[in-house]
Design brief:
DNA-binding; globular; 14 strands; 11% strand; 595 residues; alpha+beta; 23 helices; four-stranded antiparallel β-sheet; Alpha-Beta Plaits
DNA sequence: GGTGAAAGCGCG
DNA sequence: AAAGCGCGCTTTCACC
């Protein structure tokens, strides 16, 4: 019994009365049907257990009651939505598609040959591009005409073979072997992502409409522009002295600006703000309104909010660093001005939490920089950096820290980062080393073991060309520039990626605690959250370092404690007893606040 | 008429 | 024209 399989792979560790994995896939013997196989520690397998074509939810519910070690399946979003709809939640799974991606790329995994050979599992990072295969009741069946096959294999035999490959790969990882923890975190993320869509964000359509109307005027007829937008547009044209100026096309707008004597080189907001001209303030206002309308206007509302819920689709592992991406509705870009539309159901509250300075704290923990950990202990990290004497103001501290993590070289950041380097040498060495590796075209790896992609062929080609004897200055400068760019990417990768791992651990822990709450009986609150999540606190929103839980009133205080405890638990899970605390801003309210 | 790149801006 | 990372989405426009 290896340490990896025995304790770490389970997140969080638990006593399981049934310490076996349960793999599910399309049956090889019963065409069109599903089947399961149970696996034990020593590689033993049960015979195929047939699952009735329409009986997956029942099967899973029954087995789940026995607390299997993990469900093993190809692709969580192909299976889990239908289970939730049927009222069945699972505690833990192993998502083969996501885990394959991590293991195939991680340089910590010594035996990757078998995974690399399994090309059918190497899929594009974003499988949401095309419609997914239908989910239930024929789980993995193709629906005539409309859908395509899942992006990864789904037969039970393929599932079992891939799981074998992955277990070997996990065991072959270099010490300290944290990759199983990463796979557990990634897989619980896959469950959470589906659950978030299923439960939805409680959305107050009237409040959204009120915010839009206040800014833009009443909702216009389809195809027409809102009154306030038109009025501000006229103001801009008047100030430009150009009644026909086009404001929506950057090239045309630029010409109009030039004609009015504004020497701008682009029409981006920050550059326009540099110029003094009566047309500038209304133009900035116009751009603000136009953005609100096109990105989150009434059309967005019609398309994305149904029955009081906004249901975005999250894409775990959608970003190379391991952050989630989203698909549809722009879940990760909801403007703060619209946050008040996020509103708890009657009888419920929102418990919101965001982590203060997550990434620098993660950097302090993974680098073991005690001075940086101390700067953030029990207070605002930037205030602590000021107190340490490294920089003079909180603003400077922030610029310096961001510059350290992003690779800032010029301006304030270029001036301040060296001071940070003196005050926090261990933390800075970690990111500086990561940057140096990237500049040489190397690969870096997060705390738990997610590796960065190598530079592309073009990058390699430019470097090779620049090192040839006949290379000119232009080529050398170009090569240097893109080498530094890649260094900034790898510098940031280790921090952003490890922060994403912490966030997954935080949510995984929180999810488990939330489900231990007693459902609220009587009138069922949060009915629109579906059979699994109504009546009990559930995650409703996630944004990199921020969560919102939708909870019955009676549970709100306890939920806040659970969020806090989960953050500390995540810190311990990843970093042991590193003296870094992850501070939260916690808020309990009926609606999310702008800020 | 569809496709893809670029610009611009929202989020962390 | 961002300096300094990672994304998604809408609009415009050149091009096939």
């Amino acid at each position: 019994m290896s340490v990896v399989r025995d304790t770490v792979v389970d997140m969080p560790p638990r006593e399981s009365p049934s310490p076996r994995w349960c793999a599910v896939g399309r049956s090889g013997t019963a065409p069109g049907g599903l089947a399961a196989v149970e696996l034990d520690e020593s590689g033993g397998r049960s015979p195929e257990i047939p699952i009735p074509a329409d009986g997956l939810a029942n099967f899973v519910a029954a087995r789940e009651a026995e607390a299997p070690r993990r469900w093993v399946w190809a692709d969580t979003p192909a299976v889990y939505p239908a289970l939730l709809t049927a009222g069945v939640r699972v505690e833990r799974c192993h998502d083969l598609r996501l885990c394959h991606q991590i293991l195939r790329n991680s340089v910590l995994v010594r035996d990757r040959a078998a995974l690399h050979a399994a090309t059918q599992w190497a899929v594009a990072p974003d499988p949401v591009e095309e419609p997914r295969a239908p989910l239930m009741p024929a789980l993995f069946e193709l629906e005539a005409g409309s859908a395509r096959r899942p992006t990864v294999p789904d037969s039970l035999s393929e599932v079992l073979a891939e799981f074998d490959r992955q277990r070997s790969a996990i065991d072959s990882a270099a010490e300290p072997n944290r990759i199983a923890l990463l796979l557990a975190a990634e897989s619980v993320g896959a469950l959470i992502a589906v659950e978030l869509t299923s439960a939805g964000v409680p959305w107050d359509t009237e409040e959204h409409d009120r915010i839009l109307s206040e800014a833009l005027g009443p909702r216009p007829a389809p195809g027409a522009k809102p009154a306030a937008l038109l009025a501000v547009g006229e103001e801009v044209r008047a100030a430009l002295g150009d009644p026909s100026a086009s404001l929506d096309s950057p090239p045309k707008l630029l010409r109009a600006l030039r004609a009015a004597g504004i020497e701008a080189s682009s029409t981006s907001r920050w550059e326009l703000a540099e110029h003094e001209h009566p047309a500038i303030p209304p133009l900035l206002h116009y751009k603000k309104l136009a953005r609100l309308l096109s990105a989150n206007g009434w059309n967005w509302l019609d398309e994305w909010v149904r029955d009081g819920r906004y249901r975005p689709v999250y894409v775990p592992g959608g970003v190379v660093t391991g952050r989630w991406a989203s698909s549809g509705g722009g879940a990760l870009q909801i403007p703060r001005s619209l946050r008040p539309a996020l509103r708890a159901d009657p009888g419920c509250l929102l418990v919101s939490a965001d982590v203060s300075q997550l990434e620098p704290r993660v950097l302090a923990a993974m680098s073991g920089d005690r001075a940086m950990a101390a700067a953030g202990a029990g207070r605002d990290l930037y205030a602590g950096i000021v107190e340490s004497g490294a920089v003079a103001t909180r603003q400077d501290a922030k610029i310096a820290v961001l510059g350290a993590m992003y690779g800032g070289t010029s301006g304030d950041s270029g001036r301040l980062v060296p001071r940070l380097r003196r005050a926090f040498p261990a933390a800075m060495r970690l990111v500086d080393d990561a940057a140096a590796i990237g500049e040489q075209g190397g690969i870096v790896t997060t705390w738990l073991g997610r590796s960065s992609p190598p530079p592309g062929e073009e990058w390699q080609g430019v470097q090779a060309a620049a090192s040839l004897p006949g290379a000119g200055r232009r080529e050398e400068e170009h090569a240097r520039r893109i080498a530094r760019e890649f260094g900034r990417f790898t510098r940031n990768f280790v921090v952003q990626g490890t922060a994403a791992e912490w966030a997954l651990a935080w949510m995984g822990e929180l999810r488990r605690r939330l489900f231990a709450f007693d459902p609220v009986h009587g009138e069922t609150p949060m009915a629109a959250s579906g059979p699994v999540f109504s009546a009990r606190p559930h995650l409703a929103f996630f944004l990199h370092d921020e969560v919102i839980v939708h909870a019955p009133r009676a549970h709100a205080e306890a939920v806040a404690s659970a969020i806090e405890e989960s953050a500390q638990a995540a810190g311990r899970l990843l970093f042991g007893d590193a003296p870094v605390d992850f501070r939260l801003d916690l808020r309990i309210s009926e609606r999310a606040l702008k800020d």
